[in-house]
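The pair is listed for reference:
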Amino acid sequence: MHFKIRNRRGFWVTILVILGTGLVIGTMLLRNNVAVPLNQLAIKAAPTPTSQTIGTVNRGDRVQIITKKRQWAQVVYQQQKIGWVPNWLLNKHSQVKTASKLAETTIVLDPGHGGHDSGALANSNQPEKKYTLKLAQQVASNLQKSGTNVIMTRTKDHTVGLKQRPRLAAAQQANLFVSFHFDSAATPNSGTGFTTYYYHPGASKQLAQSINNQLGHLGLENKGVKTGDYLVIRDNSVPAVLLEMGYMNNDLDFKRIKNPNYRKQAAAEITAGIKEYVNDHY
């Protein structure tokens, strides 16, 4: 059963008593009672998108926030039921109208290099770091339109240590990690194409395959899915891939890399691959 009392400051406080358990959830101020801003928002048994869905709420339904954990909110819904929802999806300013598996996901995007680490250089001396950031930002924009909680290892041209990047994914308890790079060959104009790398078998390999499956309209050779001993994916505790999206020191590859339309198409296909993986495994 549940009832309301007025506290000393005049706020209504909801007291919920579940008979037989003696569980009392109280002192939840009215300011923690929020309207759901989108439809088909799944209620999860635990604060992770892979946990069991135990209910659904829709736009305009009210939920009472009890506590927050791992960027998720534990809520009371339908007056007496309790579960978890992504806290970022309770933001009334969200542009998302309908929830999805992708919207429930936290993804770390890692633009390679930055700051004093230029990465590979084009034959014109333009640095890799400039284009990894541009591509990652485009993927971030695509994912955010779906409601995804996107975390960037860097958002501007500054140095980020290699070990910091996988640690960020662990600290934020992310669900996926994608690192963006462009390749280079020992001899200019001798290497071409793009490659999708993973280190750990299982989920990381499956994520790599899902993304590579979608990379079909870029005008470069698809070198497929390969294992790669790169620290940012080797030392990662979540499914992680590293994408080499063309050769900086191949003039024809670089002509595409610096073209916004190429990056837009690549970002669209990478986003589609991430979505494929999430829909298939969550």
